[in-house]
């Protein structure tokens, strides 16, 4: 299964400018994220937030022939 990005590179760069990385969050920011589930990212490139990607099932299928 391929990971399909949810954000364009420009959208992701903009969000990363507006939101601090998780390692720098205060306790209040952690609690707020737990309630709202907004955008988050980590400084470590080895950590991938799966919520930044769509499941392949969310994409329209191109395997079916259109109706004649």
Structural topology:
Layout (H helix, E strand, L loop, with lengths): L3 E2 L3 H10 L8 H10 L16 E2 L14
Antiparallel strand pairs: 1-2
Structure description:
With 68 residues, the chain is mostly helical. The protein has one domain (4-58). 29% of the residues lie in helices and 6% in strands. It has two helices and two strands; from the N terminus they run βααβ. The protein has a two-stranded antiparallel sheet. The mean pLDDT is 83.
> What's the gyration radius in Å?
16 Å
**Silhouette:** elongated
Helix content: 25-40%
Mean pLDDT: 83
Percent strand = 5-15%
**SSE-based structural type:** mainly alpha
Number of domains: 1
Instruction: Count helical runs.
Output: 2
Low-confidence segments:
none
Largest sheet: 2 strands, antiparallel
Order of helices and strands: EHHE
The order of strands across the largest sheet is 1-2
Number of strands: 2
> End-to-end span in angstroms?
31 Å
Which tags fit this structure?
single chain; 68 residues; mainly alpha; two-stranded antiparallel sheet; 2 helices; 29% helix; elongated
What's a concise summary of this model?
The chain has 68 residues and is mainly α. It has helices at 9-18, 27-36, and strands spanning 4-5, 53-54.
């Amino acid at each position: 299964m391929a990971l399909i990005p949810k954000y364009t590179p420009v959208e992701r760069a903009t969000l990363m400018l507006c939101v601090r990385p998780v390692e720098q969050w205060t306790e209040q920011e952690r609690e707020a994220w737990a309630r709202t589930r907004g955008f988050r990212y980590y400084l470590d490139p080895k950590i991938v937030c799966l919520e930044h990607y769509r499941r392949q099932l969310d994409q329209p299928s191109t395997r079916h022939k259109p109706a004649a």
